[in-house]
Amino acid sequence: YYDYARWGAKAKLTDLETRYPQLLAPILKQAQTPLCIDETLFAGTVTATSASSSSLSDTLDLFAILKASQTLSSEIEIEQLIGTLLLTVMQTSGATQCALMLSQGPNLTVHARAALRASRQIETQILHPPQSLVESGLVPISLVIKVKRSLQPTVINNAAQEALLISDAYIQNQQPKSLLCSPILQQGKLLGMVYLENNLATGAFTQDRVEVLNLLCAQAAISLENARLYQQAQAYAQQLEASQLQIVQSEKMATLGNLVAGVAHEINNPVGFLNGSINHAKDYIRDLCKYLEIYQRHQPPRGSVAKLAEEIDLEFLLEDLPNLIDSMKGATDRIKGISTSLRIFSRADQEHKVRANLNQGLDSTLLILKYRLKGNEYRPAIQVIRNYGDIPEIDCFPGQLNQVFMNILANAIDIFDEMAQQATLEKLENHPQQITIQTTFLPEKKAVEIRIADNGKGMNETVKSKIFDHLFTTKGVGKGTGLGLAIARKIVMEKHQGRLEVQSKLGQGTEFSICLPVRG
Asked: Which residues are paired to 509 by β-bridges?
């Protein structure tokens, strides 16, 4: 009885009421207070505004509309809303198939479909990505165009006899019987359309069902607009959070650069003094040695002088002292080189690109990370293999590229530290953790290529496909922002018109490839 009421088969309802009044008594008593779908509802009460109907189907539809409207208004996530809308429309309309179209600029695209299966189950599907009307093959385009122009619902009782649809490819192929297409309007603006069809019976969409669908479309318009605003707000919130994190990241790099530059400056002054003093000391020692040699030749040491010369091994001392001074000079040169590398890493980028040697940038970045490459209680030192080629200087923002190198190398070290927690020291010694850096000039492409590879645990295809995504990270809470590689790709691609790619196999390691153009 309920199903026939939902279907609108009034003759069948009358027959059942006549044949089985005792079984339907509880339902018929509820129907004694007549209701119809154009009644006004206030806070759960019903006030009649027109002549009432004795049909229970109106009562059932009214409560179905109330429930459906409440369900739609409670959805805020766009995909959940679309799924609920299709399910509700299918349950209240008597359709065997349904499609939802939404406006994207001047065009309509099919976002979802639903169908009544042989098991009487309703199956819904969200289309990713949305499809064009022609590509989807789910709607008669001529009917959609008519509704789009008129902004009025259109009912086709028998598609085979409708002149508008005779030449429509969808109608010719699918041969549906009853059709209903209704616009979803928000303040006169077309947000989308709902297309319904029944391929079993003609005249399936009665006036009552059209009115029900209109009410659902009105609620859907409000809910879709709310969902759109919510989605927009979420996107703005994510952009704001990302911008704040990016600012923090940039400030951290700038602070590190300033700190490193300051340390390099402070080191440079005393090192410069030591270098000058050692050069003078070499001259002084050379003169003193020459003096002693001449003195010994003319006045051979005797007595206590000879004894002291023997005790201090004067001959060895005179021979080794210049070597000691040379070693000191080598050490100060090394400190000076470190200071230079620190300044290279921390150099502030100007408004315009400058010429720089990327091998030097890589060395300076490794110097900053040297303390992390050293061995610790969990693992031996990480081996760094440099295969630097003879590459030309390129026009670039050196500080930003150093940040790219820093992110990639630091991620590799993080992976090694994580692996060290799950492996024995003996295993790590037998299979050393390695980072290989290779730079190559590609004359045919007029580009410089930098490859940074590790022999870590690698990535699966899912992680690899998301590794450059904004805010994506595989690290634990508080250990990663998901910005490092996203910023790195932006620096390479947008700032330098280059290419940043990754190759990885699970259990075999990861390789990042950076390709940067060489101008001139």
From this structure: 505
Q: What is the 3-state secondary structure (H, E, C) of 269-298?
A: HHHHHHHHHHHHHHHHHHHHHHHHHHHHHH
**CA nearest to 429, candidates 477, 378, 474, 394:** 378
Environment class of 294 (CB within 10 Å of its CB; exposed 0-12, middle 13-18, buried 19+)? exposed
pLDDT of residue 56: 45
- Give the pLDDT confidence score for residue 436 in this predicted structure: 96
Closest CA to 512 of 477, 484, 475, 474: 484
Which of 475, 476, 380 is closest to 424 using CA atoms?
380
Residue 79 is encoded by which pair of tokens? 């995909």
What is the C-alpha to C-alpha distance for residues 426 and 510, in angstroms, rounded to an integer?
Answer: 23
Adjacent-strand bridge partners of 45: 42
pLDDT at 194 (0 to 100): 94
**Which residue positions in the chain have pLDDT lower than 50?**
31-57, 59-60, 477
- Using one digit for the tens of pLDDT, what is the confidence trace for 139-170? 999 999 999 999 999 999 988 888 888 888 89
Q: How far apart are CA 171 and CA 137, in angstroms?
A: 10
